[in-house]
Structures are given as structure tokens and as C-alpha cells.
Write a structure and sequence with these properties.
By secondary structure, this protein is of the alpha/beta class. 30% of the residues lie in helices and 16% in strands. The protein folds into two domains: 107 residues, TusA-like domain (Translation Initiation Factor IF3); 260 residues, TIM Barrel (Alpha-Beta Barrel), CATH 3.20.20. Strand 10 and strand 11 form a beta hairpin. Helix 1 packs across helix 10 and helix 3 runs parallel beside helix 4. The radius of gyration is 21 Å and the shape is globular. Bound molecules: iron/sulfur cluster.
């Protein structure tokens, strides 16, 4: 691990546990780390207390003491304020609505201020097992269900902290046995978007759950990778395209706001024009069309595809699972992107993210294109 691949976030987490003047000893076998820690200490307001020569075991030891005012940069820096350095789009997988077919990179637009949006993984199992799934979801996956009481507590704390919007994702959220109550716990407090493949909502309890949701407060974001079945079924499984179309028509017919999201390995595959034409026919507004690149996480990482994402390259989108808090929803299988070991409290985790962002922004102001080295 180096400062571009997760160490920065881990250091920030650990530093927040210390009192002023207390020290953190870092052992590293990566030659970039001691010099990066020198810069990080200065930018974060800590004291670089020294380092050893490289030992016989190939490692360096670096001692950093927490700044004696007991705070870090986030206390004095509004990373979303007018002086903020432009940051990157939320990135692949579950980013904000794009402006069109070309908006598929990590480098356009500005990031959502930390604390405005929160993602909640209701579960990790899914009726599909897409080859690029960042969450490693499948019918056989451990569900890791988010208990309803926990969702209520998370939504309540986030609303009290000034949050503006919630996103419910998975896995396939409609496989959660209490999805109606879960979404209601969110939408009763904040506008809520559910990410779904729309394949399991046609009948039975899940249809009733869908119909019970508040059409004024709930948006359905539905995955559709292509207008015809070729690309969609190749990426998501035979027959999935037809059932997704059926689901989209059901949701539109019930009067829900609908957002359509495609996931592509290429910036603009041959199927892109037909996808746009289909959404034109459906009269899906431009802001409700989302194109996402594949993140090299989960199944995509095992297949060696997609774009590499790190804390340094991916603007944060705080994400809660039943067992922790993460930097971004595409990175919930990556231990170096974990912000907290428990889903509550949110406030401390959001502060950890703000501290990290503040240091990154300060580094960019000094002209560093990448804040710290990427692995
Ligand atoms: S990408 Fe979505 S639909 Fe596909 S397996 Fe993962 S959670 Fe399920």
C-alpha cells in the first residue's frame, strides 16, 4: 500500500483516533511512502517526527505526530467552497446522471460536496451475476442484509447532518425481504433513488413493494446497457435484456420517475447511438441518462477489465453497508477504500473523508496533478 492506493485514507482514519502530540509509527517497504508522508504531514498540519534508514528487512519506519491543535485541514477548509479545486465525477458504477454519451470518464464535472449524498447497500445478493459487477453480487453471494432498524438509524442521522439525497443499491435491492419498509425509511426523510435491474418486480410481493413506494420521493434507476439484446445480454446474461425492458415499462406505467443507466467498457461502443435513440423514443430526459465506465473492482478486477480506481482518482461518494462505511459504492469489496469498520456513526466517517479530501485539494493547489502516487 502506498499513498495513492489507500494508505492516505488509512492514515487519516488512524490519526483521528489520536490526541494532539500522539504519534503514529508507519512501517513501509515502499520507497515512495517516507517522502509522501513528509508532504502529507505538512499538508494535514501534523509533525513529521523522523524516519529510519532502510533496515535489513527492506523497511523504513516513519513517525508522524498529530498536530497539536488537535484538528486537521478539514476543520478550516471547505472542500466544496469557491476555492475548491475541481474534482472528478463520482466515477463508474453508480455516478450522478451524465450529460450524455461522452460523459463517461472520471475527469469531467465537479464532485458532490461530502455530506450531501449517501449510498446504502441494502444487500449483496442478486438475481444476476454480471461479469463486471463491482460488488461481486450473484445469486450465490452472501446477502449481507442491511437490517431495517439500521437503515432507519442511518437515514435519520444523515438527514440530521444535513444530507440531501439517498441512494439505495446492492446487489438487487428488491431481493431484500423488507425493501418496501427500507425504502420508505429513506424516502420519508430524503428524496431516494433505487438502483435496480428491474427484473424481479413484475409480480407478487416485490410488485406490491414497488407499488407501495412514494412516486413523489422515489426514483428508479434501471440498468440497460444497449437498445438490443446483444451487448446487454453479453454483459449481464442471456434473457436479461428482455426482462429489463419489461421492467422499465412496468415502472414507467406506474408513474415513477425513471433514470436509465448503461455500463460500458468502451467510452462509446457501437451500440451507443441505438441506446440514445431508444431513450429518445421513451422521452427519457437527458439528465436521466447515465453512462458509466466499468470500475476495475469485484468481478471486473478478477477479469482484468475496467478502469482502475483509487482514493486518489475517485471523488468520494460515502457508502454504508451492514458492516462498514466506504469511500465509494464501486469500491465496497476493496479493503483499502474502507472508511469505518461499522455503519454508524456517520459523522466521524464523513469527517474522515473530508479530512482526506482537504489534503488532496491542498496538494492540488500546490500543482500536484495526482495528489500522491497511484499504484
Ligand atoms: S451489476 Fe447489478 S445487476 Fe449485475 S450482478 Fe451486480 S448488482 Fe446484480
Amino acid at each position: 500500500m502506498d499513498c495513492g492506493s489507500g494508505l492516505l485514507l488509512l492514515l487519516t482514519r488512524r490519526m483521528r483516533d489520536l490526541g494532539p502530540g500522539q504519534g503514529l509509527l508507519v512501517r513501509t517497504e515502499d520507497a515512495s511512502v517516507p517522502s509522501d508522508l513528509l508532504d502529507w504531514s505538512r499538508l494535514a498540519g501534523h509533525e513529521f517526527a523522523g524516519q529510519t534508514e532502510q533496515g535489513d528487512d527492506g523497511a523504513w519506519h516513519v513517525l508522524v505526530r498529530r498536530g497539536d491543535d488537535g484538528t486537521t485541514l478539514a476543520a478550516g477548509v471547505d472542500s466544496a467552497g469557491p476555492d475548491a479545486v475541481p474534482r472528478e465525477n463520482p466515477g463508474p458504477g453508480q455516478g450522478r446522471p451524465g450529460s450524455g454519451l461522452t460523459d463517461t470518464t472520471f475527469t469531467s464535472g465537479s464532485a458532490t460536496p461530502v455530506g450531501e449524498r449517501l449510498w446504502i447497500y441494502t444487500n449483496f445478493h442478486c438475481n444476476l451475476a454480471c461479469g463486471y459487477c463491482c460488488a461481486r453480487s450473484s445469486p450465490a453471494a452472501d446477502p449481507r442484509l442491511m437490517p431495517l432498524s439500521l437503515t432507519e438509524a442511518v437515514a435519520a442521522e444523515f438527514a440530521a447532518l444535513g444530507g440531501r439525497e439517498l441512494f439505495v443499491t446492492g446487489g438487487e435491492p428488491f431481493l431484500h425481504p423488507q425493501i418496501a419498509e427500507t425504502v420508505a425509511a429513506c424516502s420519508s426523510r430524503l428524496p431516494t433513488t433505487i438502483l435496480t435491474n428491474a427484473m424481479v418486480i413484475q409480480r407478487g410481493a416485490r410488485r406490491r413493494a414497488l407499488e407501495s413506494l412514494d412516486r413523489d420521493r422515489v426514483t428508479l434507476q434501471i440498468s440497460l446497457d444497449s437498445a438490443d439484446s446483444d451487448l446487454h445480454d453479453r454483459q449481464r446474461g442471456d434473457g436479461s435484456h428482455a426482462r429489463a425492458l419489461e421492467g422499465i415499462q412496468t415502472v414507467l406505467g406506474l408513474g415513477f420517475p425513471v433514470r436509465i443507466a448503461a455500463t460500458w467498457f468502451d467510452d462509446e461502443p457501437a451500440a451507443g447511438a441505438a441506446w440514445t435513440a431508444l431513450l429518445d423514443r421513451w422521452q427519457i430526459p437527458e439528465p436521466d441518462r447515465l453512462v458509466r465506465p466499468v470500475a476495475r473492482q469485484g468481478f471486473a478486477e478478477e477479469a482484468g477489465g475496467g478502469e482502475q480506481v483509487t482514493v486518489d482518482s475517485l471523488a468520494p461518494e460515502p457508502t454504508v453497508t451492514a458492516d462498514g462505511i466506504w469511500w465509494h459504492p464501486v469500491a465496497v469489496t476493496d479493503p483499502v477504500m474502507q472508511v469505518a469498520d461499522a455503519p454508524l456513526p456517520l459523522a466521524a466517517a464523513l469527517d474522515t473523508i473530508r479530512d482526506t479530501v482537504a489534503v488532496q485539494d491542498a496538494a492540488r493547489r500546490e500543482g500536484r496533478r495526482h495528489v500522491f502516487r497511484c499504484a
